[in-house]
Design a protein that fits this description.
binds zinc ion, 26% strand, binds NADP nicotinamide-adenine-dinucleotide phosphate, 16 strands, 352 residues, alpha/beta
Length: 352
């Protein structure tokens, strides 16, 4: 298969810093779109993958799944995009297209498994897929999104993961006018959850460990802020929420949040992967038909719906633009929750 070399940033092992590397991309085949990457957001999942927090990372690893750029080439069978168009790629670059999930536009739950934008099995070149910390990406047109022209492009990048990961549960649990929604953790996902829930008409509360984020949360659209370490403040929210979106990346006690759910309410985990400790107590769930659920990104059609909604409502992420060589420092700051509220890499800095 024809291929070409490009510059990227990646890591050779779980305990090494990211550094410049050369990777290969396939030459665009008939259904492919080649995109010159202009900006790439920095998701906490990038850090989890680079450092093998979840196991399964194959090295070298090139993270990045919040990609926006311009189309530089299209295959002969591509009609949705032309050279010069803005385009975006999120967390997936392929799926089987035939299973019950794919047929319902739920590619993220593809039964044989979707192909991740990074660390996925690359069926074209072998090995693993490389993500958006790179000059270019080549992706099947089914997985390329259209970008609203009116939005700031760098600040649009985080919509491709942080945006869709919070939009999908908001839509699945039918959040709208009159809904009471809470968001746990004010980081990349959390701040998008606040903006999107607010724009859908919900009353929005932030649960945070960080009192110094209260002012920002209110500016982002939160109607209330509850400091999760205060038992008194937690008790004040008893029975309130229809939906809680929990974005905390590390193990934490979920039990104190269950009493704050309304009857039939759901707490949806989108951050932490793994067993809960302490164990989930069933009594507060049974006494109110409450659920604890999980949710993974969103399908391609739903991602386009979210991007169009953001275009109509002028919603983008709050970002700090960084150069590619600042990525290791950015990871350290992300670990300290010191991001307001998403790092985005200006890919010009890699090309220069
Ligand atoms: P982030 O920007 O680092 O934000 C996470 C926030 O959680 C922090 O700002 C902090 O908020 C809170 N937090 C951090 N560590 C905590 C701890 N030990 N205990 C309690 N709270 C803590 O991360 P992100 O990019 O939003 O990603 C969040 C998680 O979602 C990551 O694990 C990521 O891998 C995952 N993710 C999942 C999906 C999916 O499809 N399900 C998609 C993308 C990302 P406060 O300071 O306000 O407490
Ligand atoms: Zn992500």
């Amino acid at each position: 298969m024809e291929k070409f070399e490009i510059k990227a940033y990646g890591t050779p092992s779980a305990d090494a810093d990211l550094k410049p590397i050369t990777i290969e991309r396939r030459a665009a085949t008939e259904n492919d779109v080649e995109i010159d990457i202009l900006y790439c957001g920095v998701c906490h999942s990038d850090l989890h993958t680079a450092r093998n927090d979840w196991g399964g990372t194959v090295y070298p690893a090139v993270p990045g799944h919040e990609i926006v750029g311009r189309v530089t080439k299209v295959g002969s069978a591509v009609s949705k995009f032309k050279v010069g168009d803005l385009a975006a790629v999120g967390c997936m670059v392929d799926s089987c297209g035939e299973c019950a999930s794919c047929k319902q536009d739920l590619e993220q739950y593809c039964i044989p498994g979707f192909i991740g934008t990074y660390n996925g099995k690359d069926k074209h070149l072998g090995g693993r897929t490389f993500g958006g910390y790179a000059e270019k990406v080549v992706v099947s047109d089914r997985f390329v999104l259209k970008v609203p022209e009116n939005l700031d492009l760098a600040a649009t990048a985080p919509l491709l993961c942080a945006g869709i990961t919070t939009w999908s549960p908001l839509r699945h649990w039918k959040v709208g006018k009159g809904s009471n929604v809470a968001v746990t953790g004010l980081g990349g996902l959390g701040h998008m959850a606040i903006k999107l829930a607010k724009a859908l008409g919900a009353n929005v509360t932030l649960f945070s460990r960080s009192p110094e984020k209260e002012k920002d949360a209110r500016e982002l659209g939160a109607d209330q802020v509850i400091i999760s370490t205060s038992a008194e403040q937690m008790a004040s929210a008893k029975g309130k929420f229809d939906l809680i979106i929990d974005t905390v990346p590390y193990i934490h006690d979920v039990n104190p949040y269950i009493p704050t759910l309304n009857i039939n309410g759901t707490l949806v985990l989108v951050g932490y992967l793994g067993g809960l400790e302490p164990a989930l107590h069933s009594v507060p769930m049974i006494m109110g038909r409450k659920s604890v659920a999980g949710s993974l990104i969103g399908g391609i059609a739903e991602t386009q719906e979210m991007l169009d909604f953001c275009g109509e409502h002028n919603i983008v992420s709050e970002i700090e633009l960084i150069n590619m060589e600042d990525i290791n420092e950015a990871y350290e700051r992300m670990l300290k929750s010191d991001v307001r509220y998403r790092f985005v890499i200006d890919m010009q800095s890699l090309k220069a």
